[in-house]
Every structure is written in structure tokens, then in C-alpha cells.
Amino acid sequence: MSRLVRGGRVTWTRDVLRDVLVEMGARRSRSVLAVVAVALSVGALLASVGLSRAAARQVDADLAAATLDMVTVTVAHASGTDAEGTTFPSDAPARVTALAPVVGAGLRIDVSPLRATSVTRAPVAGSDPQDAGLLVSGMTSGYLEAAQADAGPGARWLDHEEPVVLLGVRAAAALHVPVTDDPRGLSVWVDGRRHDVVGFLDEGRTDLERVVAIPYRGAVRSVGGDREARMLIRSVPGAGAVVADVVRLAIRPDAPAALAASPVLDTSTVRAGVSSRLGRLVGWVGALLLALSVLLISGSMAVGVLTRTPEIGLRRALGASRGTVAAVFLVEGAVTGALGGLTGAALTAWSVTAAAAASGWTAGLDAWWVVVGPALGAAVGTVSAVRPALRAAAIEPALAVRSS
Question: Would you list the DSSP string of 175-232?
Fold first, then answer.
């Protein structure tokens, strides 16, 4: 008995599929339009998902590269100063660079805003033009390294106390100092004291163009302390938040509260926000496209029910049940949707790859799209066919045959 039941089910399924294929072949234009509609909606949805994920990854990478590798440490209050009036210990950069994620750290204090300074090319102030916009700043070589400013081998002299300077390109022009690869013999006078020029700051850095960099230790002594000093720290991308949490303790384990570390943006929150917002956008766009596809296919199949009313009535008169008639339309919708979903998945792979390549992003294609595309399309086609299928199943054989 079970064999007869299974055989009957197989025969019924085969007959339904054959009827569907015959119907789709007889009405090729309508079938093609339905497949194209599903392909466009499913493809647009999957492409939106793929592009949003690629954009989210790119945003995350850009944020990690641009914001999560810089930390600034400043003096919070003077309660932690030593006998010389300094809060940062002399080996502060070495303590910070000993931290595993740190790739560079250095100190800087701007002297000109704290006291009047004189920078001239000749030993007597006023004998040569002086640009009032020059900024005398004490630095360590580690500061330039952390700022990724190329100053050449002369930068190492900033870690000593010899009277030397590194000049920004506009500062050199204002002081009539020629920018050259060999600055030997060149000098300027800072506050009436001769300083040998040992190099020039990176020409591509507009923030250093007017800087006259002198050794950090001498600058701190000249202003009477490091209250206005700051430390610049560069870490490996993504480790800035970790460094900001521990750097004060690394510099001053005895008085970490004397220092303040700049807040660093954590991209985990930004990543979640970007992903969730893009996900909601994709969801709304995809839902709209799928709804339009359902309406289009449903309307097309409803028209098909009207044109096939005599045929449906004849089937019913020959013994076809309401379930069989409904199954023909449901299977037709599922097959149409599956073909459209498969086509949409192929379009997605091409469009996401092309768009990512044009934008310089890394394309991300998941294997599950090959399965999700046809499955989603089949679901859309089946839902679209529910109303036409119920309408076809409700047709009375006698009225349908009489109307033909």
C-alpha cells in the first residue's frame, strides 16, 4: 500500500512539473519578465548586502588606520613635579616605547607662546629680518618619529643639550637659510646664542613649516618646567585605546593622576553603528524591492488565471482536484522565482566585484549567496502565487466550461 502511495505521489509531482514547464514554455514572454523581475529584486538585495559589508569593512579599516594609533599625554596638574619642576621624567619616552604596541613616542613643548624669543640669522638681534610667525619649540627625536615627520639624521641631536636647531622650510626661508642636504656651517641665533643648523623638517608637513626645533631639555629649562609639555605616542593600528589606558601608569607609576591621556576613539562602537545603520538601510531597500516583485508576479499570474479559466475548468471536469490546480500555480511561481534568484545571485557576484574594484575596496563574496539567491527567489515566487493559486482553485468546472 505504501508503495502505491509513494508511486502516486511521484506521478502527481511529475505531472504537476510537466504542466508547469509546458505552461512556462507556452508563455515565454511572461515567464521571462517574471524571472527578470525576481532576478533584479533578489540581485539588488544581495548586492546591497555585499556592498554594505564591503563599505563597513572599509570604514572600519580607515578608522583603525586614521584614529586608533595616536595618543597625546599632557600634564593634568603640577602636584607630581620633581625638584626641577618637571612632571615627565627624563626617560619618559623610553618607558612608553617599552610598551609592546608603541612604535614611537616623544616630547614637545612650544617655547614662543610661553615667553618672548628671538630668532635671527646674525648674532645681533634686529640685524636680519625676523618672521614674527616663527615658533620655537623644544622636541625630542621621538616626537618627530611619532609624528612621522622626516627630519633626517640631524633629529638625533634633539635628544642632547648642544645648541642645535632643525628648521621648517618656511622658517628657513624667513631666516634666509638655504635648505640643503648638507647644513654644515649654517647657523642661527636663538635668544642671542648661536645654534648650529643640523637639518630641516619634512617639507610635506604644513604644521612644521614655521617651526624652529631646539633640544627639548634646554627648552624646558628656559621656560622653567614642563607644565605645557605634551607627549605624542604612535601605536600599531587599533592599539591606541589600550595604550591610552596604561600609558599614565607607565610614565609615572608613582603619580599617574598627574598626567592626562587623550581619549581615543574605539572603532568597535563605530563599527557596530555603521553595520547596524547600513543593515537597516539594506533591509528597507530589499523589503521594498521584494514587495514590488511580489506584486508584479502576483498580478501577472492573476491575469494568467483569467486567460486560463476554460483550461482550468476542463481540468476540474476531468477530475483534477482543487489542490492539484493550486499546486500548478504554486510550483510555477516557485520555479520562476528560483530561476530569478539564481540569475540575481550571479548578477550580485559580478556587480559587487566590479563596484569594489572601482572603489579600491576588498570585495567579499560569500558562498552562501549561491544558495540564498535561489531560495529567496523561490520564496518570493511562491508567495506571489498564493493568491492566484487560491483563485484558480476556486473556479467551478461547469461555469468555466460554459464561459468558454
Answer: TTPPP-S--TT-EEEETTEEEEEEEE--TT-GGGTTEEEEEHHHHHHHHTS-TT-EEE
Residues 191 and 224 sit within 8 Å (Cβ to Cβ): no
Q: How many helices (H) and strands (E) does the chain have?
A: 12, 10
Q: Note the pLDDT tens digit of each residue in 137-186.
A: 999 999 999 988 888 889 999 999 899 999 999 999 999 999 998 999 99
CA distance 286 to 302: 24
pLDDT at 5: 42
Burial class (CB in 10 A: 0-12, 13-18, 19+), 130: middle
Find residue 109's DSSP bridge partners. 138
Q: What is the pTM for the complete model shown?
A: 0.53
Contacts of 23 (CB under 8 A, 6+ apart): 308, 328, 332
Whole-angstrom distance, CA of residue 42 vs CA of residue 347? 9
What are the cell numbers at 402?
Answer: 460554459
Q: Which residues contact 322 (CB under 8 A, 6 or more apart)?
A: 316, 393, 394
Residues 398 and 314 sit within 8 Å (Cβ to Cβ): no
